[in-house]
Amino acid sequence: MPLRVIEIVTPREDKDEVVKSLEEHRPDEGYVFWASPLDDETALTFRVVLDVQESENVLDKLENLFSWSEKYRIIVFSAEATIPRLKVPVKEEIPVNPNGENAENDAAKRKNRISREELYSDVLDTSVMSKSYVMLVLFSSLVAVIGLMRDNVAVIIGAMVLAPLLGPNVGLSLATTLGDGKLALESSKTLIIGITLAFFISLCAGFSLGLPEISSELMLRSTTSFSDIILAIVSGAAGIISFTLGVPTSLVGVMVALSLLPPLSACGIFLGAGQTTLAAGAGLLFIANIICLNLAGVVTFLLQGIQPLTWWERERAKVTAIRMALLWGLMLAILVLLLYFRIIQ
């Protein structure tokens, strides 16, 4: 089971309060901790070693304890192992009152994922606009165009694995779930710039090189079927779970299954070559993948229990998440109807 180390830097005068809080919660979370003095003789550092599934509970309690002040600092990092092994905490049954509610409304629940703060940090890294992101979009777009033009599956898979558009979409889904307007704006900006750049590159390629005589890979991305929608939803949910589990190796398969860049590149190539009907088909497939990914992302984040710390932020985020889920669901319903009527005609 993955381990985490939570390092807490506090003023020395707050040692007793921090120790008391850590001792109170240790039986429930099953962690070990110790304190060490820092060189400046005014601060202490506490290190807490615990199971990754308990990290969010502990972080939330610490954040509530410190309520937040610049004189404290919390750092989270991975640990390979600890000897002796951590004991699995025995969870006592929480008493239930006559109304059927738990006596402890805020009782900690074991979460089978990384903490909210770790997840936010991981997603933020892939959602912020940077020179590296622009170069990744540029290179992966060129790889996708070459693969589609040459009808080479291996090269196209290379573009899928690079997947520069996946991160901003996940960031947008997380921002929706947390009600984080700043992350939503940053993710949207990054996604729009990535889509625009990738489309422009493929459009120029289609205009200057024309359409290959035979390219089955291009033609495969000129139509959308119900199976494509199902695949996008399932792959999107799997990708979100991979993010919440902190397992980046699982994302490779998701990147290949959930194809974002190749349909967008195909749309640009078709349009540049003057094939507007085929371009519309490829564009529809790309839009379908975006819709399904974001819908699956919001729903999966909610099912994984991703939510803000305070109750007022949770209520606001819940309303935002429900509205966005309904919006993505409505867009998906319209897309399904378009596909249905196209098939029966």
From TrEMBL:
The chain crosses the membrane at residues 133-149, 155-178, 190-209, 229-247, 254-273, 279-303, 324-344. Coiled coil: none annotated. Keywords: Membrane, Transmembrane, Transmembrane helix. InterPro entries: DUF389 (IPR005240). PANTHER family: AT15442P-RELATED. This is TIGR00341 family protein.
